[in-house]
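We emphasize that the prediction below concerns an isolated chain of 264 residues; any contacts that depend on oligomerization or on bound cofactors are therefore not represented. The input was used exactly as deposited, without trimming of termini.
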Amino acid sequence: MNAIALHTPQHSQPLQSGALEIRGLSKAYRIEGQALPVLQCIDLSVHPGEFVSIVGTSGCGKSTLLRLIVGLENDYAGEILLDGKRVVGTSLERGIVFQDHRLFPWMTLSQNIALALKNHPLSQAEKDRLVAEHIALVNLGGFENAYPHQLSGGMAQRAAIARALINKPKLLLLDEPLGALDALTRVHLQHELQRIWVQQRCTVIMVTHDIEEALYLGDRVIVMDAHPGRIKHQIQVDLPHPRDRASTMLQGYKEQLLEELVGH
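Result of the prediction step, given as a token string:
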């Protein structure tokens, strides 16, 4: 399942929660006794309810950054704060969805989503209500009793998103969530993801290699450089949601982003 701890949820959150503050973040791995810097001096502020896309070449530390934010690794320098509190270990306040859905093949769609509520002190009726509500949120009504092998790739990813959202996280992290899908399914899921985010309004940070996807979904696009990974540039996408893919302004942002990534 998604790498989130099964603790008691915070279902009654204050409004405008989900502010992320990263200060002086650096991370290195040791390979054959040598320190290999992966991230260097990352400073990033993400506002509550903001959708931030992160792009950059392979090896620039995008996924490592998400792993540190979600709490899968604790060996780093600097600070990661969520609503002013230092991130320590995994928590239901931070959900993550990976490129592969990580659904358990022996469980139905409903059972996979309900697993995230396993240790919650909720009645079974309340758990069932939340599962049904989140299945409806991702438009998977009618597939409650289907097993993962009976779902398409896009449906399985929607189930993974529902499982991450059922805990009402302050921060949702998406690591190439649509990267393994075909082009048409990917476009459809981008639209679905935007709809879900507009409805839920939790803070989202998404890593992607697709610059059109980054611009279509993101309020802001962070461009990272490699060796070591660092923030090179930021683009504020001042367009309302939902967005028109054919917008000339969106094409202008695309040209600006391409120039940052590959030069003239």
